[in-house]
């Protein structure tokens, strides 16, 4: 029996990224148990620790790919705490990463605590724009800042924000997002020419 369980666990780790799913479940569960719901205009925070599994080949600081992975956990946490996730699920919709831009300012050293702050900064009918910051807890320094565009499928913003505080007033589009969207459009036009 014990050997069968070990084989199943080994197969699960071979076939799936088990730690990824465990971390999502842990992040959402702790949010539900220890944090209150929040509104669209609120910032949510999750915490992390840079371990030996997160570092690059030089074993000194967080690998660039780990930042992107942490963004998923923070985004799922934000969706759950605001109620966006429930509304997406009720509509049988999806929110998919459409684009992201990361600006690395300083590394996160190995064995450092950090937090990821997530905030919705702008939206359109079928798109959410999220800003996320990696901040080391010992000095409060913003180590990286990320903009991401979440494309909504089978659900629009009106339905997505139903019953969520703060959705009644849409913010102005920040200047950096306007420029970023122009850059994305230029890239898309260039790729369409090649097709």
From TrEMBL:
InterPro entries from the UniProt entry: HotDog_dom_sf, THEM6_lcsJ_thioesterase
Pfam families: 4HBT_2 (PF13279)
Superkingdom field: Eukaryota
Family per record: Belongs to the THEM6 family.
Listed name of the protein: Protein THEM6
């Amino acid at each position: 029996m014990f050997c069968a369980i070990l084989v199943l666990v080994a197969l699960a780790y071979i076939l799936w990224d088990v730690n990824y799913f465990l971390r999502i479940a842990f992040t959402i569960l702790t949010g539900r148990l220890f944090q209150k719901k929040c509104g669209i205009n609120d910032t949510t925070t999750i915490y992390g620790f840079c371990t030996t599994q997160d570092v690059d080949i030089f074993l000194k600081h967080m690998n660039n790919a780990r930042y992107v992975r942490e963004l998923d956990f923070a985004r799922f946490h934000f969706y759950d705490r605001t109620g966006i996730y429930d509304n997406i699920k009720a509509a049988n919709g999806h929110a998919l990463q459409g684009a992201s831009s990361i600006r690395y300012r300083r590394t996160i050293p190995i064995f450092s605590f950090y937090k990821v702050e997530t905030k919705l900064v702008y939206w359109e009918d079928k798109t959410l724009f999220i800003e996320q910051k990696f901040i080391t807890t010992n000095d409060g320094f913003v180590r990286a800042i990320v903009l991401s565009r979440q494309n909504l499928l089978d659900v629009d913003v009106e339905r997505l924000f139903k019953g969520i505080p703060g959705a009644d007033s849409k913010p102005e589009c920040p200047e950096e997002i306007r420029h970023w969207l122009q850059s994305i459009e230029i890239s898309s036009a260039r790729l369409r020419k090649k097709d």
